[in-house]
Amino acid sequence: MYTYPVLLSIIFIVIFAGCQSEMPVVDSTTTFQNETTVILIEDFSYKPAIMTVKVGTTVIWIQKDSVRHTVTSNDGIFDSGLLSEGISWEYTFNEVGTYGYYCIPHPYMKGTVEVVE
């Protein structure tokens, strides 16, 4: 027969197995209030394409395509250089504003980070 600790473990697993924190649905326009957030580079696009963050937030771009891409601001404030598959790059936004960016080899790839108070 089962001992008390084994039964307690089984009960604990059954009760808490369904308790998972839900992740927000990320669409083409997503607002986060964390200090760090992620934008994926995949399928020749930035996902999400438009991100709203608070001042001081670090955005991490994770490159998931098999071809190299960049994260280059329209106004020359930041440039990741060429990123290979599996490489990430980050930038901390310390001033309110709208920051457009694109991929140098694929200029049709565009994104925007809006920084708010």
- Low-confidence parts lasting 5 or more residues at pLDDT below 50? 6-26
* Strand content bin: 35-45%
Structural class estimated from helices and strands: mainly beta
**Biggest sheet, spatial arrangement of strands:** 1-4-9-8-6
Please report the first level of CATH classification, the CATH class of one domain: Mainly Beta
CATH architecture of one domain: Sandwich
Mean pLDDT: 82
What's the short story on this structure?
With 117 residues, the protein is mainly beta. The protein has one helix and nine strands.
Characterise this structure.
The chain has one helix spanning 4-16, and strands at residues 29-31, 36-42, 45-47, 50-54, 57-63, 72-73, 88-93, 97-102, 110-116. It has 117 residues and is mainly β. The protein has a domain at 37-115: Cupredoxins -  blue copper proteins (Immunoglobulin-like). A hairpin with a 2-residue loop joins β2 (36-42) and β3 (45-47). It is globular and about 35 Å long. 21% of the residues are buried. Keywords: Copper, Electron transport, Metal-binding, Periplasm, Transport. This is Plastocyanin. Cu cation binds at residues 69, 103, 106, 109.
Descriptors:
117 residues, mainly beta, 11% helix, globular, Amicyanin, periplasm, copper, metal-binding, copper ion binding
Topology:
Blueprint: H1 4-16, E1 29-31, E2 36-42, E3 45-47, E4 50-54, E5 57-63, E6 72-73, E7 88-93, E8 97-102, E9 110-116
Parallel strand pairs: 1-4, 2-5, 4-9
Antiparallel strand pairs: 2-3, 5-7, 6-8, 8-9
